[in-house]
Amino acid sequence: MAVRIHIAAAILALVFTVVHASDPSPLQDFCVAVPDANAGVFVNGKICKDPKIVKPEDFFFPGLNKPGSTANPLGSNVTTVNVNQIPGLNTLGVSLARIDFAPYGLNPPHTHPRATEILVVLEGTLLVGFVTSNPGMNMKNKLFTKVLNPGDVFVFPEGLIHFQFNKGHSNAVAFAGLSSQNPGVITIANAVFGSKPPISRDVLTKAFQVDKNVVKYLQSQFWWDNHYYP
Q: Fewer CB near the last or first residue (10 Å), C or N of the chain?
């Protein structure tokens, strides 16, 4: 019995060692290794400031009470507050965003590759939802959707495509917390039809099963970025 306990303890110790030795989640799209340490210009996160010269301003951001401009085709504005706006967020794994909506404004389908999002509505009525990842052969991606009113909270799991739409006649405001200091955002339409250089029309025609002229038209549009980085 004592031998079994020691073996179990050894296995648990090995498991915990492997867990602690795993790589951290990336904080940008990629971090290419270089053979020469002197050639390195970026790390997974930010280089730390000397604690002796840290100031209260390093943990502060003003003005999130002010609405962002929704005068764009989407009728929405996302004001982001991440490590680039508050240096003190470095390594803390959280960030924030204010989302303003004009009547019938949309924060279009997008994904945060590095963060879960939790959203609370302050004003207005929002239709929100997210779509699951591919479930398996001959199965459909499932949509989880809900109408939110002031005080309601909804969670969008990390990496899943989601959206928010103001279905009311008045402005709407929501705040979102994200589980990364640099969550990233991929707006689906912008990425697929507005990339530079563009994705091959043959690829998109095949993927969406539409006429090539439809793809040509979509690629010719100006895909608006509704994110504001103070």
A: N
Q: Is 112 annotated as a binding residue?
A: yes
Find the domain containing 74 and state its range: 58-186
- Is 227 assigned to a binding site? no
Do 80 and 97 meet the contact criterion of CB atoms below 8 Å apart?
yes
Residue 84, token pair as written in the block = 């680039």
Helix (H) or strand (E) holding 119: strand 117-123
| CATH number of the CATH domain containing 156 | 2.60.120.10
Domain tally, the chain: 1
| Residue 106, both tokens | 């949309």
Residue 112 belongs to some domain of the structure: yes
Query: 189, 180, 177, 179: which is closest to 226 by C-alpha?
Result: 189
Structure tokens at 88: 């003190």
| pTM check: above 0.85 | no
* Residue 135: inside a domain: yes
- Helix (H) or strand (E) run with residue 128 in it: strand 126-131
Q: Is 110 annotated as a binding residue?
A: yes
107 labelled ligand-binding: yes
pLDDT digit string (tens) for 155-183? 999 999 999 999 999 999 999 999 999 99
Residue in 41, 107, 47, 109 with CA at minimum distance from that of residue 79: 107
**What's CA 71's distance to the chain center, in Å?**
23
The reply to whether 162 sits in an annotated binding site is: yes
